[in-house]
């Protein structure tokens, strides 16, 4: 056994160690050969028989292949580094040539650039990175300019003491909110009521209910900021309805603190019927002037499909007086339905309440829907337009008759 062990050591030293010395790996191979020789002798179950022969040639091949793999792994890293450096040099050359190349590029972007299949794909990728870098720079420049302007404004405000010397009192936003709340509280006692009918939830989709609530929120804020606001009533309002959920989304905890009246009762149960006027675009009766003693009702509905007659039918069922805004009397209507949004209606009613001027009030109608204001009634203008069109048609017919008479014999002329 000792003879076999000595013989194995001599073979390993004579064959493997010179090859390892050339590659600088003598220590590792010596440890491997030592463990190999010891592992053959330290088997507990099987004893080494003298008749067994070791296949040293096969063992040498295995060791050489392992060395080649390790060497290739060590060599591959500098190759990859050299390819990245070459790619960076090409990018620098393209930048000097005037092509769209980013100034700063990361290793991941460089690897994706190298993986592009063609030269045109590489150019497109570099152009994309260049534009992205330009957008980032412009955004950063805008933010820096904005910060500089804000700092300059702060410096000017701190340096100048004109606000202290002036006789005008500076009111903060919190003070103005207190003033607005005080006006809304006064309107709940002395103000003219304005009713929003909240009974149209079944007639609308979820999206239309959301838009309706947004318009009502705008109407409430507009009403709160006026000198003489309305006392807003939400009638036919049910808890846990879509209206209620959307209002809580907008107002949050301030919903319970709003200075408005919210009730599930109908307006006919709260106010006398002879004072109620339902404002609807389908009404045959036109509103001539704003009455401060009446209570106007606005249907809380956004009708995208233009369901005509819904609010009018509801008002007739309740036996209420209806009215429509005199849009045709003061506006030369061009296109679109005569239905207005709830915030536009609020602006119009507030202006009528303060000034009683229809021209000022109807300025809140979208300008895309009418051509302009008219001094005469629209019916007379329509008559004149029809007369002009008929005269044009007659002149055109006479011209056609003359042309036909020239081109054809007299027996075929028009009579």
UniProtKB/TrEMBL annotation:
Query: Where would you find this protein in the cell?
Result: Mitochondrion
Q: What class of enzyme is it?
A: transferase
Instruction: Return the annotated region ranges for Disordered.
Output: 137-160
Q: Which reaction does it catalyse?
A: guanosine(9) in tRNA + S-adenosyl-L-methionine = N(1)-methylguanosine(9) in tRNA + S-adenosyl-L-homocysteine + H(+); an adenosine in mRNA + S-adenosyl-L-methionine = an N(1)-methyladenosine in mRNA + S-adenosyl-L-homocysteine + H(+); adenosine(9) in tRNA + S-adenosyl-L-methionine = N(1)-methyladenosine(9) in tRNA + S-adenosyl-L-homocysteine + H(+)
The EC number on file is 2.1.1.218, 2.1.1.221
Output the Gene Ontology terms for molecular function. Answer: tRNA (adenine(9)-N1)-methyltransferase activity; tRNA (guanosine(9)-N1)-methyltransferase activity; tRNA binding
For this entry, list what GO says about its biological process: methylation; mitochondrial tRNA 5'-end processing; positive regulation of mitochondrial translation
A cellular component annotation (GO) from this entry? nucleoplasm
User: What's the domain of life for this entry?
Assistant: Eukaryota
Biased composition, class Basic and acidic residues, residue ranges: 142-153
- Cite the PANTHER family for this sequence: TRNA (GUANINE-9-) METHYLTRANSFERASE (PTHR13563), TRNA METHYLTRANSFERASE 10 HOMOLOG C (PTHR13563:SF5)
User: What's this protein's name?
Assistant: tRNA methyltransferase 10 homolog C
Which organism is this protein's natural source?
A: Pomatorhinus ruficollis
What gene does this protein come from?
Answer: Trmt10c
């Amino acid at each position: 056994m000792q003879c076999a062990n000595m013989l194995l050591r001599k073979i390993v030293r004579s064959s493997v160690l010179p090859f390892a010395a050339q590659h600088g790996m003598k220590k590792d191979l010596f440890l491997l050969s030592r463990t190999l020789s010891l592992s053959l002798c330290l088997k507990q179950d099987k004893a080494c028989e003298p008749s067994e022969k070791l296949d040293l040639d096969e063992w040498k091949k295995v060791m050489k292949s392992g060395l080649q793999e390790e060497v290739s792994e060590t060599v591959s890293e500098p190759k990859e580094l050299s390819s990245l450096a070459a790619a960076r040099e090409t990018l620098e050359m393209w930048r000097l040539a005037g092509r769209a190349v980013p100034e700063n590029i990361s290793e991941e972007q460089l690897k994706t650039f190298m993986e592009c299949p063609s030269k045109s794909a590489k150019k497109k990728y570099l152009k994309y990175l260049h534009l992205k870098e330009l957008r980032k720079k412009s955004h950063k420049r805008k933010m820096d300019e904005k910060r500089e302007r804000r700092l300059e404004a702060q410096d000017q405000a701190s340096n100048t003491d004109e606000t202290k010397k002036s006789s005008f009192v500076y009111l903060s936003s919190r003070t103005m909110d207190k003033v607005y709340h005080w006006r809304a509280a006064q309107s709940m006692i002395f103000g003219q009521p304005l009713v929003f009918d909240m009974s149209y939830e079944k007639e609308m989709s979820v999206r239309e209910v959301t838009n309706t609530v947004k318009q009502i929120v705008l109407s409430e804020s507009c009403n709160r900021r006026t000198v003489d606001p309305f006392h807003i009533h939400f009638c036919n309002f049910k808890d846990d309805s879509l209206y209620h959920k959307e209002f809580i989304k907008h107002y949050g905890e301030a919903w319970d603190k709003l200075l408005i009246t919210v009730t599930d009762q109908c307006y006919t149960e709260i106010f006398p019927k002879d004072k109620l006027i339902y404002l609807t675009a389908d009404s045959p009766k036109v509103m001539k002037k704003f009455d401060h003693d009446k209570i106007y009702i606005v249907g809380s509905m956004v009708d995208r499909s233009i369901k005509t007659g819904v609010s009018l039918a509801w008002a007739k069922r309740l036996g209420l007086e209806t009215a429509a805004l005199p849009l045709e009397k003061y506006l030369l209507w061009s296109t679109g339905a005569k239905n207005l949004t709830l915030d536009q209606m609020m602006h119009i009613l507030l202006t009528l309440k303060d000034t009683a001027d229809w021209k000022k009030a109807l300025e809140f109608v979208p300008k895309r829907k009418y051509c302009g204001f008219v001094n005469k009634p629209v019916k007379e203008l329509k008559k004149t337009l029809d007369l002009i069109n008929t005269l044009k048609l007659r002149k055109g017919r006479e011209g056609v008759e003359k042309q036909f008479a020239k081109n054809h014999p007299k027996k075929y002329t028009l009579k």
